[in-house]
Amino acid sequence: MASMYPKNSYQKIVAVIQGLKYDRELLVDQKKVFLFNIIKRSQINTEIQKIDQKIAQYQSRLTKHQEPEFHLNTMTNTEQPDSIGKRMSKTDYRIERLQMYFRDPKYDKKRALQIGDIGQACRNIKIALTHLGYKTTNTEKYDKELRDAVLRFQIDQNHTNEDGLVGQGTRRLIARVLYKKSRERIFSLMEYHNENLFPQVFVSYSRKDEEIVREIVSRMTEAGVKLWVDYQNLELGANWRKSIEREIPKSRYFLALLSSSMLSKKGYVHKEIKTALYVLDEYPDSDVYIIPARLDDCEVADHQFSKLNYIDLFPNIETGLERILDFLAEKD
Question: Which of 34, 44, 295, 321 has its CA 20 to 30 A from that of 104?
Answer without folding.
Answer: 321
